[in-house]
Amino acid sequence: MVGMPISGDLSALVHQFVEEKIQTTMLTGMMIGALVAILLVIIIIFFIYRRMKQSR
What we know:
The chain is mostly helical. Helices cover 88% and strands 0% of the residues.
């Protein structure tokens, strides 16, 4: 059959696909983590600013 990989190539293709999927998932997790960290910093700064404004 034309275009059909032999069993060794199929295994390599599946392995490559799974690795790419893991990398994509890892990148997505890192992006979500970075976003959460940035939001946390913004919220902390907001509360500190509000508290300093009230103390004046």
